[in-house]
Design goal:
The chain is α/β, with parallel strands linked by helices and 334 residues long. It contains 8 helices and 13 strands. It has an 8-stranded mixed beta sheet, sandwiched between helices. It is globular and about 60 Å long.
Length: 334
């Protein structure tokens, strides 16, 4: 999604491809997402309706991937309350929607309970940060070696080639910097823009409107990266631009990404690495865990990221570096 709050100017903190995607048999299903008319889906899953909901109210857009983040069971459409889009047939929890996004967080809809996330998460919920992200904040990444959104998108597509026509999740999408490029490319049957920040999702939608991009195959979802609201083995590709270092638990998040990817699915991510800082003082290397606890941001070396991906079940780690910038790719085993 974005760089850490502590990043100002200088950060402190090629590829095997799979060929099992997407599934050949695709259907066209009716979807209500904004003004969505129709969308392609790669498979369908039959879900029994609960007594409270008619079978006709099952989620009509690709019901085999959208799931309850508590039970991981497919959600069904709730026609009884306008403000509630979906319900879990198992735990009966209802998930709300508004004119911009579906809220599929576990605590979403709680009346009195609330949680304060780490600073690296909470800062991006501020309306000022969401407004500034593409109005100067992201442009400063060039000092860390980031080549710029257009080039980063082009690089990511080399890793994502095998997922053409599939479902892509833009995790920690922020203001939609890459979401818009994925939608505009028309490469994917569905693009899911996912973020924990309500204001980032609103800014993403505003930019989509300004660019007059089609919304038929776009879904905006508020979700926790550590508890993804997608069924296991249901997503073709996950992209996370400049986000991994801000996640509260990178290992939990990457493990969740591995869970939701289809066999052969691809995860592509960019972040900052300490390898790119020349002559990093040994004392700084030794104390980075302390700084991580204080700032809620994570500081990686490339070999640690490869180890992280492997530990979470991904294979075929590939990476490209430029200064402190790194783009990584790995696959879920086929």
């Amino acid at each position: 999604m974005a760089a850490c709050l502590s990043y100002v100017g200088v950060p402190f903190p090629s590829s095997s491809r799979v060929s099992t995607l997407p599934s050949p048999g695709k259907q066209r299903l009716t979807v209500r997402c904004f003004s969505s008319p129709r969308v392609r889906a790669s498979a369908t899953v039959s879900v029994e309706a609960t007594p409270e909901l008619d079978s006709d109210d099952k989620v009509s857009f690709n019901n085999n991937f959208l799931a309850c983040p508590i039970c991981y069971d497919p959600l069904i459409k709730n026609a009884e309350r306008e403000s509630t889009a979906f319900q879990c047939p198992t735990c009966k929890k209802c998930y709300s929607k508004n004119e911009v996004f579906h809220d599929l967080t576990i605590a979403g809809g709680a009346k009195t309970y609330g949680e304060v996330k780490p600073l690296s998460t909470e800062v991006f919920r501020l309306s000022l940060v969401s407004f500034l992200y593409e109005r100067g904040w992201r442009q400063s990444f060039i000092w860390g070696g980031f080549p710029g959104p257009d080039k980063e998108f082009e690089m990511a597509q080399t890793y994502l080639e095998s997922t053409r026509g599939g479902i892509l999740v833009d995790a920690s999408c922020g203001s939609g910097l890459f979401t818009r490029r994925f939608v505009k490319s028309e490469i994917y049957s569905r693009v899911i823009a996912m973020d924990f920040s309500e204001n980032m999702l609103r800014q993403c939608y505003e930019f989509v409107e300004q660019d007059a991009l089609p919304k038929e195959n776009l879904t905006l979802v508020r979700a926790d990266i550590s508890r993804l609201p997608f069924a296991s083995s249901s997503i073709d590709a996950v992209h996370a631009g400049a986000a991994l270092h801000c996640w509260p638990s990178p290992s939990t998040a990457v493990a969740e990404i591995c869970r939701v990817l289809r066999p052969g699915g691809v995860f592509v991510a960019t972040t900052f690495v300490l390898d790119g800082i020349p002559a990093l003082p040994p004392v700084l290397k030794a104390s980075r865990q302390y700084f991580a606890q204080v700032s809620s941001n994570h500081y990686f070396f490339t070999n640690e990221l490869e180890d992280l991906f492997k530990a979470c079940g991904l294979v075929g780690f590939q990476s490209v570096r430029n200064g402190s910038f790194i783009m990584m790719s790995a696959n879920k085993p086929s």
